[in-house]
Amino acid sequence: MFLHSLIPRILGLLLLISPSWTADPTCFQPGFCANSFAIDEPSTADAIECLLACQANPECQWFSFFGQVRHCALLTECKEFKPDQANVISGAKDCEIPPQICGQAGKCEETAMIFSNVSVSVDACGNRCQLWDDCRFYSYETANDICQLFSACESFDDSAFITNARHCEIQDVPLLLLANGFPAYRKVSVLDLSQSLDEDQPDISPPDEYIIGVEGASGFVMQDRPTVCGGEGYGIVWERCFQLDPESQEWLEIAAMSVQRFQAPSVAFTPNSLGQEVAWILGGIGNESQYWTSTEILQDGTFSLGPDLPTPLHGACALTWDHNDVWVIGGSSDKDLALKGTLRFSWSEGQWTSGPDLNVGRFGHACLVRDGKVIVAGGLNADLEPIDSVEMLDNGVWTEVAKLPFPVSGASLFDLNGEVIFLGGVNSEGKFLDSVFHMKTDHWTKLIETFEYAREFFNVFFHRV
After folding, report:
1. CA within 13 Å, CB half, 416
2. Residue 244 forms beta bridges with which residues?
3. Cα–Cα distance between 282 and 329 in angstroms, integer?
């Protein structure tokens, strides 16, 4: 369906939704401006994008969009308007963008559907729509992460989908940067969760490979820069730290820790008592299999010793969400594997206290905090077997929630615009995983079948390009 026939149908729907809006007779009219000077001829997806291009150009006063070839003419004036020309829409620079169908209950008719697949969020579905030239509307079902794209939309069914027009406001879905881990080691890859399953990942050049081949390194973001410290590779545990430079996309060495650390949990935050960003690296294993109670704080580019842990720990996870308390969850000590215990350090009080025990002891697991609730997933039990257990801490109580699709350890959890994403790791058969799952209320939805370089015990960051 060409745009000249689609626009009136869109406007008809909009008038039903927004009856106060009326079309300007000089806006979005079928026809083109003849004998007029074009100052630019960009390629745009539709007439609205053509209008936006005109409004961004100070010399442009009129636009004509040729739908069949997706050609936009930016004009200094409209000397002679030729009405009712097939496949062409024109208008003045001061045209208002018609109100968009945003958040409409139900989905568009099946006959106009051009794509259907899973998607991590409605924003990701909207991003995908903008990548398809023929997409004018997209419908999303939250329960099963289903995204459907449509070339037109003349009616809505009564399903659980929510429908938006192409130009509804959306939040960008950030790229993810995966670094290190076994067996990928130095390999760095970029992951776009706007794409999924059988779709090819975009051709995005990743940053330089990491300097050292390591797994189990401490990873955090400091001063908006991905930072990696320590880790073990080829039998060597390291104390060196590197940051990814946003301009050169190179890993630059920064200060080194006082000792080598492997599987040391870490967290970067701004304690209220300091008012300045710090990174805290806790415990871990040394180069000669020492089990550390010591911790180190990175501040102003320099490491200093922090408060000791009450017991040696490695393979735990650490997080914070209130700029005061740091939680260290699970892990292994020099005496016990797969601990259930949790520790809380108060920066304002300067002391450790015990928190509520997990239902299932674990180490080598993943964790994150979302909306004040802590989620831990997977890991190894005391028999060194991967587990599928997922627990949530809410109001001081750990509750088991939807299990992972299979037992896995060495994976990562990530908060992507409020959505919980689980990726990578190794399963009980020793297979390194390259899939991505999205946490729902009672199950996990697979988003990506495979990504480049399967890995365990790796670091994941937002990728800023």
Report:
1. 32
2. 251
3. 12
Domains along the sequence of the chain with CATH: 29-92 (3.50.4.10), 104-165 (3.50.4.10), 175-463 (2.120.10.80)
Q: Point out the least confidently predicted range of 56-70, 198-212, 348-362.
A: 198-212
pLDDT digits (tens, 9 = 90+) for 111-157: 889 999 888 899 999 988 888 878 889 999 998 899 999 988 878 89
Q: How far is Cα of residue 60 from the mean position of the Cα atoms in its chain?
A: 37
Angle among Cα 219, 223, 229 to the nearest 5 degrees reads 25
Rounded to whole angstroms, how far apart are CA atoms 368 and 320? Answer: 9
Residue 192 pLDDT > 90: no
Alpha carbons 81 and 297: distance in angstroms, whole number? 69
Q: For residue 13, what pLDDT band results from cuts at 50, 70 and 90?
A: very low
Instruction: For 262, list phi and psi in degrees, rounded to 5.
Output: -130, 135
C-alpha 24/C-alpha 6 separation (Å) is: 17
Q: Give the pLDDT mean for 334-352.
A: 93
Cβ contacts of 185 within 8 Å, gap of 6 or more:
210, 213, 214, 215, 233
Separation of alpha carbons 96 and 102, rounded Å: 17
Q: What is the pLDDT of residue 18?
A: 35
Q: Taking residues 60-67, what's their average pLDDT?
A: 91
